[in-house]
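Entry type: protein chain
Record version: 2
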Amino acid sequence: MIERLVTLCFNRRGIVALVFAMVALYGWYAWKQLPLEAYPDIADTTSQVVTQVNGLAAEEVEQQITIPLEREIMGVPGMHVMRSKSTFGLSLITVVFKDGAEDYWSRQRL
């Protein structure tokens, strides 16, 4: 089968050259259409929820603040990953949204 394909390409050199030129022109056109940025933004769209409570231990912060907030945030559309950390008097929840999510839209949803 490969032998027939190679033989066909040798017999029809003009068509092979034309197809190659068309693919090369399309590649050049697609390359020209790419946006040019000095520092392209490759980071995911993320938002953070920071809650500060004085006088609560890490376990109390997790049970009273972090877990209820996580349950509410789980219903946010477009969420990809959620990470949380509870320390003495502080709850940090980081939400990563799916590709293509707008920054403004993601903050409004939280």
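Comment: The helical segments are 2-11, 13-33, 58-73, 103-109.
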